[in-house]
Structures are given as structure tokens and as C-alpha cells.
What we know:
globular, 37% strand, 28% helix, 3 helices, two-stranded antiparallel sheet
Amino acid sequence: MVYVIAYLTAHAGKGDDVVALAAPLIDATRKEEGCISYDLYRKPAEPDSLVFVETWKSRAALDVHFAEPHLKTFKAAMADLLVEARVEVVPSGKNRGHLTCPTGRRKFFLPALPTRRRFTA
């Protein structure tokens, strides 16, 4: 398996626009072969900070996703809405590591992340 964490920071007040434009992307991506989970998370206290958490069957499935038209459409639409975007790809296996959140206070061991539960805190 391969895990992807994509951090998006929208321009002030544009988080709702990002969420609206992400809806068709999420729907189409969840139908892709090889997609195990594809979820968007958002903190209520920071509505312009969003995180995609994804799980894929293989790196090959992820590479196919990167070439999909719905992802390219989403990326083009984000050009004027985002201040920053950062994507981390983490393969599973013995050498998988921990991700540290941007504040550096919390570490996540990726397989422990739930696939369908959304956090709001």
C-alpha cells in the first residue's frame, strides 16, 4: 500500500471554495481502481487549512491517479485559490516512517489513521 498526505492552504476565506471544487474530485477518485480511501479533512478553527489523506493499493495505482483528468482539472482550478500545497507519499512496509504535523507536536503512524472517519478537532 501507499499512503498520501496532501496539505493545502487556501487564501484567506477561500477554504469553502476549495471544498466545493474538491467534491467531484473525491467522488471520481473513490471510484478509481486501486483507491482504498480518499478523504478530505478540515479544522473548524482553521477553515482555510485542508488535508487529503489517501490510501492506495500500489504506487502504480497512485501513478494512474496522478494522470486522471479529474485530478488535472482540480489542480488547474486550485491555481488561484491556494497559497501552498505540499504532498507527501509514504510507501508501506518495514521502512515506513512517521509523519510529524507542521507544529511538530504530534506524530502519526500512518496505518493507524482511520479510513472513513473525519476529524474536526
